[in-house]
Amino acid sequence: MDLSAINPILFVAGFLVAATPLIFAATGELVVEKSGVLNLGVEGMMIIGAICGFAGAVETGSPLLGFAAAALGGALLSLLFAFLTQVTLANQVASGLALTLFGLGLSSLLGQPYVGVTPPRLPDVDLGLLADIPVVGPILFTHDIILYLGLVLVAAVWAVLKFTRAGLILRAVGESHDAAHALGYPVKRIRTLAIVFGGACAGIGGAYISLIRVPQWTEGMTAGIGWIALALVVFASWKPWRLLLGAYLFGGIDQLQLNLQGAGVAIPVEYLDMSPYVTTIVVLVILSRDKSAAPASLGRIFHASS
Amino acid sequence: MKRRTLLAGAALALILATGAYAQDKTKVGFVFVGPVGDGGWTYEHNQGRLAVEEEFGDAVETVFVENVAEGPDSERVMTQMALDGADLIFTTSFGYMDPTINVAKKFPDVKFEHATGYKRADNVSTYSARFYEGRAIQGHIAGSMTESNIIGYIGSYPIPEVIRGINSAYIHAKKVNPDVQFKIVWAYTWFDPAKEADAARTLIDQGADVVLQHTDSTAPQAAAQEAGNVITFGQASDMAQYAPKPRVSSIIDDWAPYYIARTKAVMDGTWESTDTWDGIGAGMVAIGEITDAVPAEVKEEALALKDSIASGDYHPFTGPINKQDGSVWLAEGETADDGTLAGMNFYVEGIEGDIPQ
C-alpha cells in the first residue's frame, strides 16, 4: 500500500470533473420533477447532448458553440417527450423510457461520422492570482467555464425556486395541478417549459462527457450516468444543495475507488464498487425522516376537464 | 384462378431457382455481439467477414447480424441463419457458447465456429488468439520507454485472459527495466468510456507514463493525449487515429486468414471440428505499426522479439518464472503449457497487489 501515491489535489480536481455531468442532468431533472413531471428519458437526452455537442464543437471549432448545440439537441428531444405527455397525455414512465431508447439509437446514427475524431479543447478559465493560491488554487480555480456554470446553475435553481414568483408557480403546479389550474395558471405550458429546460441541462451534461471528461465520441458513452442523475434527484429529496453534495459524493467515491486501487490498497474492489450504493441507502434512510420529499403531483397526468 | 396458379408457379420456379443458386454458393453467417462500427472487437470480426467475401468473390455469400444480445436472443438468430441455409456460422462472443452448442445439435449439417469458448461438438469448432504474445511486445516497449518506472494497466475483469496479458506484459517490461512497477486498476467493464478515461487519468495522476489497457474503447488514448507525455497501445483494433503519440503500437485481432481457411475447408468438404489457439506466427495476432515516437533501437528489439515469437523460437512464458508468492512456476528454460495458461489465476513474482476474487 502506498497512499502517498494519491495526490489529494488531483484527486479532488478529478471528482469535481466527474460530478459535473451529474450536476447538470440532475438539476435539470429536479426542475422537471418540481413541476410534477417525471421524465425518465435523462439518459437519452444526455447521449443526444453528447453527440450534438461533439458534432457542434467539431464542425464550428468552438467548444462553447458545441455546448450550445448540446443544449439545443437535448431541448429538442425533450420537446418530443413534452408532446407525448402534455398533448397526447401518454404515460410519463413509458414515454421517458421510450425517449431513452430513441435517444440512444438516434445518437449512434448521428455519431457515425465522428468516431475517432478529436474535439477542440475548451481551455481552463484563467483566474490569474486565485489559481496561484497553494492547494486551494489548483483544486478550485483551474477548471473550464462549464464546471463553474454548473455551480451557478445549482445556485440559480435554488434561488428561483425559493425566492421568486416564477418558482412559486412552478412548485404550485407540481404540488397540485388542479389548484394551479383553478388559479388560472397554464399548467401544460409551465410543465412544457420545465421539460425543455431539463432537456437542455441534460444535453449540456452529456456534452461535458463527450467534450471534456473523455473527450471523444463513442456509441453509448453515457453508460448509465443519466440513471444515476435520476437517482440523485430522489437522493437529494428535491433540494438543489443536497443534490450538489450528492453529486460530489457519487463522483468522489468512484474516483476514490480508482485511486485506492492504483495505490494498491488491499480492500476488495467489490466493496469499493458498491460503496456509492451503500452510501445512497444509508443516506436515504437518514433522509426519510424528512417528509417534505416528493412533489405531490409527480407523475400524474393533468387534463383540464378532470 | 388461372392467374393465381400462374403466380404460384412463378413463385415456385423462383424458389427453386434461388435454391439452386444458393447451392452453388457457400453461405457463411456471422453473429456479432456489438455494432460493426465499435472500432474494436466486432469491427475486426467484420473485417474478417469482408476478407472472406473478397477472397472467394461470387462463390460465397456472407450474412451477419450485429448487436445480438448473449443468451436466448442469440439462439434465435443462429437458428434463423441455419434455416436460411447457412453452411458455416461464426459466433463471436464468449457468451454465445451454450446457444451455439444448442443450435448445432439441431442442425448437424451446418458447421459452427465459436470464438473464445471451450465447448466443442462434431460440428462445432472453437478458436481464439494468443493475445499474450502481443502483450509481451507491448511490455518490452513499455519497460524501455517509461521514465517514471510506473506502468499503469487498466484491467476489465479478473479472468485468465486478462491476467495472462498482465503477466506477459510485466515479465517483458521487467526484463528490460528491473525497476519497473505495475499499477493495476480494474474497471469491471469491457466498455465504458467515461470510466476508462477516469481510470487512465487516475493512473497518470499517480505517476504512470505508460498506460496499457484491456478494455475496448479509445478513451484511455484520449486521456493520455490530453495529459501529454504518456504513451498507450491500441487494443483489439489499431486505434491509429491516436498515432504517432500517445498510441505507439497496438495488438490487432486479425481473424481474416482463419475465416478464409475455414470457409475454404467447408467448400472443399475437409472441415473438421478443431480447437485453434493461434498467435503472431499464424497471423491471428498482428502488431500495429510501431511509430517513430519509439526510439529506433527499441523498435528494432521489439520487432526482433516479434519475429522470435512468430517463428516459435521464443515463448513469452519461459522460465525461470516464479509465482507472486515466490514459489517456482517454471524452471530455467521450461515453457508454460496451454492448460495452465488457459486457466491462469495468479500474478507472477514482482507484481504487487492481489487479484480480486
| Rg result of chain A | 20 Å
Widest sheet of chain B: strand order? 2-1-3-4-5-11
CA distance, first residue to last residue of chain B: 72 Å
Shape of chain A: globular
Mean pLDDT of chain A: 88
User: Tell me about the biggest sheet of chain A?
Assistant: none
| Number of helices, counting only DSSP H or I runs of 4 residues or more of chain A | 12
| Helical residues, percent of chain B | 40-55%
Structural class of chain A: mainly alpha
Q: Got a strand count of chain A?
A: 0
Series of secondary-structure elements of chain B, N-terminal to C-terminal: HEHEHEHEEHEHEHEHEEHEEHEEH
Number of strands of chain B: 14
Please mark out the parts of chain B with pLDDT under 50 across 5 or more consecutive residues, or reply none: 11-22
The average pLDDT of chain B is: 88
Distance between the termini of chain A: 65 Å
Based on secondary structure, the structural category of chain B is: alpha/beta
Q: Portion of residues in helices of chain A?
A: 55-70%
**Oligomerization state of this entry?**
heterodimer
Topology:
The complex is a heterodimer of chains A (306) and B (357).
Chain A: H1 8-34, H2 42-60, H3 63-87, H4 92-111, H5 136-140, H6 145-163, H7 165-175, H8 177-182, H9 187-213, H10 225-235, H11 240-262, H12 269-287
Chain B: H1 2-24, E1 26-31, H2 41-56, E2 60-65, H3 72-83, E3 88-91, H4 97-106, E4 111-115, E5 124-129, H5 131-145, E6 150-155, H6 160-176, E7 181-186, H7 193-205, E8 210-213, H8 219-227, E9 231-234, E10 247-253, H9 256-268, E11 275-278, E12 285-288, H10 296-311, E13 321-322, E14 328-330, H11 338-342
Parallel strand pairs in B: 1-2, 1-3, 3-4, 4-5, 5-11, 6-7, 6-8, 8-9, 9-10
Antiparallel strand pairs in B: 10-12, 13-14
